[in-house]
Amino acid sequence: MQKLRDSSYLKHFVERLGSLERKASNLINSLPQHILLEAPLVVSYDRLGYLPASLVFWFNTILNPSRMVLLSDFGSVIYHIAPYREGDSVIAFASNPYTPSVYEFLQTANSLGLEAHVFLPSPQDSKVREALNRFRNLHYLEVWDEVEASLAEAIGVFGFYSNAFKDRLGRRGVNLQKHGEEGFSVIAEELARKYSDVLEKILAERELFVSSTKMLEPAGLLFSQALRNIGVRSVYTPLDQIPGSSTVLLLTSSVEEFLVKKRVVELTHQGCRVHGLQLNTDPLESLVYVGILALFVSRLKSF
Fold it and tell me: What three-state secondary structure class fits 193?
């Protein structure tokens, strides 16, 4: 996979990421300010909307711990949560506007009188768009690839919350705000070059499991989809459910090193080949960084 190191491909990748960042800035501007209030918040997602939704959850849990935040998928919210909530703020993310669960989620929120703000790619099918536009508080993103939509939404969330919580946790809050303001395209080429060796080994595999700790699970699911986009048979599997004698890509952040070390030894003893990809940055940024590497891989299909 020499293409990963090709200067023209790197330029193509960085330009695409920059385009997504510009679209994400519009997403930030459309976020309702009241979701920052000290009130219960329900965060929901469909498909790869899990990544931006998880960032909302973790930013609030880590930097705004007095706020109660619930994270759950569309189906669980529709049938088990929304009917019993009154007055909660609801924010939701989807990566595909055509799934039945998107319409069902909107219909349920509308019938229950919930103010749900939903972020999703703009449907290109006029009939679907007409059906969705019956509902209020839709925030459309002009991106139509699911990996790219998920990453753009995640970047938008990161920029919004890193700025909102810049005065929390001292230096950590300041650093997150600084990186959110600078954007990620400025470090994209460096990031791609840093992990090119391990990515080339991964892309040489015909099939593999992608795994991670729980915090990086949404990014792992996104990365697994990016691999499938370019023909690698990949499935995301929780760290404690990986079968023996398999090939594994293990995504971690540096703060989780001790947490996964024992499990890596166990997998090796079970005959697994483990490719490690460790992000040496703040765990909140690690979610976005893995998403950026997923874009780096996924764009190979169109280059």
Answer: helix
Residues in the chain: 303
Tokens 């007095």 appear where? Answer: 66
CATH of the domain at 115: 3.40.50.10490
Instruction: Give the C-alpha separation, 122 to 81, whole Å.
Output: 27
Pick the closest to residue 137 from 21, 49, 34, 23 (CA basis): 34
Which residues have C-beta within 8 Å of that of residue 197, sequence separation ≥ 6? none
Q: pLDDT (tens digit, 9 = 90+) per residue, 51-109?
A: 999 999 999 999 888 888 999 999 999 999 999 988 788 999 999 999 999 999 999 99
Q: Do residues 39 and 132 share a domain?
A: yes
Q: What is the pLDDT of residue 38?
A: 67
- Mean pLDDT on 43-51: 98
Examine residue 252 and state whether it is found in any structural domain, yes or no.
yes
- Poorest-confidence range of 14-18, 30-34, 183-187? 30-34
166 shares its domain with 191: no
* Residues 226 and 275 placed together within one structural domain of the fold: yes
The model's pTM: 0.95
Q: Note whether 257 and 111 are same-domain residues.
A: no
Give the span between the Cα atoms of 162 and 59, in whole angstroms.
8
Question: Could you tell me which residues come within 8 angstroms of residue 200 by beta carbon, excluding any fewer than 6 positions away?
Answer: 1, 4
Instruction: Note whether 49 and 86 are same-domain residues.
Output: yes
Alpha-carbon gap, residue 264 to 240, rounded angstroms: 10
Do 110 and 239 have their domain in common?
Answer: no
Which segments within the chain are labelled E, that is strand? 41-46, 69-73, 89-94, 116-121, 138-141, 207-212, 233-236, 247-253, 273-279
